[in-house]
Design brief:
It holds the Pfam family ADH_N. With 362 residues, the chain is an alpha/beta fold. It has two domains: 6-164 and 301-352, Alpha-Beta Complex (Quinone Oxidoreductase, Chain A, domain 1), CATH 3.90.180.10; 173-296, NAD(P)-binding Rossmann-like Domain (Rossmann fold), CATH 3.40.50. 25% of the residues lie in helices and 25% in strands. The protein contains ten helices and 17 strands. The protein has helices at 44-50, 103-106, 154-171, 189-200, 213-222, 235-240, 256-263, 284-290, 304-313, 332-340; strands at 6-12, 18-24, 32-41, 71-78, 90-93, 96-97, 124-125, 137-141, 145-147, 181-185, 205-209, 226-228, 244-249, 264-272, 293-296, 323-328, 348-352. The strands form four sheets. Strands 3, 4, 5, 8, 9, 16 and 17 form a seven-stranded mixed sheet that branches. Helix 3 (154-171) packs across helix 4, helix 3 crosses helix 9 (304-313) and helix 4 (189-200) runs parallel beside helix 5 (213-222). 48% of the residues are buried.
Length: 362
Amino acid sequence: MQIPASMKAAVLGDPGRIEVVDLPMPDPGPEDVLVRVHRASLCGTDVKILDRTFFKGGGPEPGTFVPGHEYAGTVVGVGESVDELRVGDRVVSEAHRGCMRCRACLGGHYTDCLNYGVHAKGHRAQGMTVNGGFAEYVRNHVSTLHRLPDGVGFESGVVLSTVGTVMHAFDVLGELVTGARVVVIGPGPIGLLAVQVARELGAAHIALVGTRESRLAHGRAFGADVTLAPGGGGGEAEALLGSADVVLECSGSGGGVDDALRYARRGGRVVLIGFFDRPVTTDLNHAVVNGISLLSVRGEGTGSLQRAVALAARGRLDLEALVTHRVPLTSIADAFEIYVGRRDDALKVMLEVRADDGLAGG
């Protein structure tokens, strides 16, 4: 497969600015894979990267850094030691590659790598500490790529990276969610996918809490037994208080943690998934008195993306329903405006990097 010498890529400028330029083609190392990107999507972390609040010390020089950690594409080149993938394979990327030498990584918790951001020790986070997928081509370590099953298109593959985060959240519970009462706070992409995964894992009752009726309607279609607004009145809302075995806080809102604690039963568990815009205060006495455990996850760790792919292979997830907007890579600034402004109730804003039907691998 002939590979060009340069590519189109979206690079960060000054805070709040991003533009598409020509960059040299990435040069894969012995353990690397070169991926031709077909689809990529935006998430809340990308907004923080765009305005540079994500970085410490100001971040990379303008015009040098390519964001994007949710993407899928086709393998077009492999390093000399790579035999796990072949040219032509369709793949989805997970963002985090730990150093694989620290205590966290050796325990399987590579999204909590103790050498986060230290390139010399092998850590990479696609689109966060190294160049990512808002480009025609991207370099990945082979361990961060997973083959897409037949019949799962590139857009669905991209959404699977978010499903991986949800799977990670259920992982940290340390036991099956089968038969559990689950409350999900925040009907964004993570929350809506959490409803689907909880259903597939056999949760006995699933409640979705949010403020937008259109998104709550998605939740009901995906399997939520109850949908309601935060702090809503009525019998259903009252019945939920103190009832949940598991609460997933996906909203990142200031009051989300207090809401989560109120829904959790005594001895229940709360998993924090959403990122918060600012420091949060909450009633920890309620947690202590009631023996409620607070847990948290970052990204799609502990091999959870591979399990998400397995669910998709069996047709158990409705992924494309979350894709509300499709924008060419060359209009990436417009894509951010759509996403940040929630234009037309945007959920997943997909960048069309390569025009095709999303299924063929050539």
